[in-house]
Amino acid sequence: MHLDFDVSRDRAETRFTPQRQHEGYDGTVHGGIVTALLDETMGWAIFHQGIWGVTARINVTFRQPVRVGEELRVVGEVARKRSRAIETHGTVTRASDDMVLAEADATFLVMPEDRRRELERRYTGTDEAFARVRDAVEREQTEQNGKREHLRT
C-alpha cells in the first residue's frame, strides 16, 4: 500500500486516503482494506524495535462506514509484550474530525530467530530499515520534544 509511517517506541502512525479501487459497496472502503491498514500499522509498532512477527489473530470492530476519498489516520500501539507474543491495538480515525471508524486488537507471534535471519537475507534494505528505526527510537529517548522519525514501506 506504500504507506509512510511515523514511529516511536511501541507506536506507529500513518495517513491514507482510500481511492475507488479500495471500495466494496459504492463509496465505502472494503473491510479487508481497513483490516490490512490496521494489521500493517500494528505490525510496524513492533517492527521498529527489530522484532519480526506474524499476525496470529486480529479482531476488527467497524464503528462507522469508511468513505472513499476521506483522509484516514491509522495508529497502532503495543498493548502488552510477552515472551513469544505481542498484543497490539489499532484505530482508524477520520483525519478531519478524529471520529473512530474502526479499531482492532491483534496478537503477533514473535518469529523464531532462524526464520527472522532467513527473511532478513531475502528482503533487501531490511538492515537499513532497522538501523533507521533504531536511530529514531534512540533519538526519541534522548530528545524532549517528541519528534518522530518518518519511514516509508
Return the average pLDDT rounded to an integer: 87
State the shape: globular
Strand proportion:
35-45%
Which CATH architecture?
Answer: Roll
Q: Superfamily at the CATH H level?
A: Hotdog Thioesterase
Number of helices: 3
Describe it.
With 153 residues, the protein is of the alpha+beta class. It has one domain (4-138): Roll (Thiol Ester Dehydrase, Chain A), CATH 3.10.129.10. It has three helices and seven strands; from the N terminus they run E-E-H-E-E-E-E-H-H-E. It has helices at residues 31-47, 113-122, 126-142; strands spanning 4-8, 11-16, 53-62, 72-81, 85-94, 100-110, 149-152. It is globular. The termini are close together. The relative contact order is 0.23.
Keywords for this entry:
globular, 29% helix, seven-stranded antiparallel beta sheet, 153 residues, alpha+beta, Thiol Ester Dehydrase, Chain A, 3 helices
What layout of secondary structure does this protein have?
Blueprint: E1 4-8, E2 11-16, H1 31-47, E3 53-62, E4 72-81, E5 85-94, E6 100-110, H2 113-122, H3 126-142, E7 149-152
Antiparallel strand pairs: 1-2, 1-7, 2-4, 3-6, 4-5, 5-6
Task: Report a brief summary of the structure.
The chain is of the alpha+beta class and 153 residues long.
